[in-house]
Structure prediction request, 174 residues.
Amino acid sequence: MFELSTARLRLIAPDEATISLLIENPAEMGRQLGLSPVSLELPEDFQAELRPSLEEFCLPNMRAYPEHYLWFTHWLIIHQAHNCRIGGIGGSGLPNEAGEIMIGYYISRDYEGQGLATEATTAFCQWLKGRAGLRTIIATTPIGHLASERVLQKSGFLQVDCEEEGLNRWELRV
Prediction:
């Protein structure tokens, strides 16, 4: 598995078998990766979206494009000192015709407010910047979600407009 490291985090890009295990048995996946057991504290609506995203987006695209699996996998955010999974980050796949991809990220409530989402987002975007065909990284935030807005600002994104009702659109040109 491919991995990125920062001062406090490891971003692990799981392969297809590991994503399958994350879907079926997250605790076993953690054991196989040698991680300390932890229960992620996430909003219910997000938890409800994670499994379908893994099943309906990540796995089919990782199978269809195995040589590009890093673009489609759900990267695990690992806290180095605690050796546990604290969140995830990923993109919308290969760049579209305009050279754009969208990213998304989350951090467990237990680890919010420590700059970890910014650290992970910055590292992920730095890795993305080196990929051929990519010109713009896009993210959206709910209007008024100041913590997410600060993550993107600190990671170099600029707010460009409202993409749809209730969301702000942010861009990072590479």
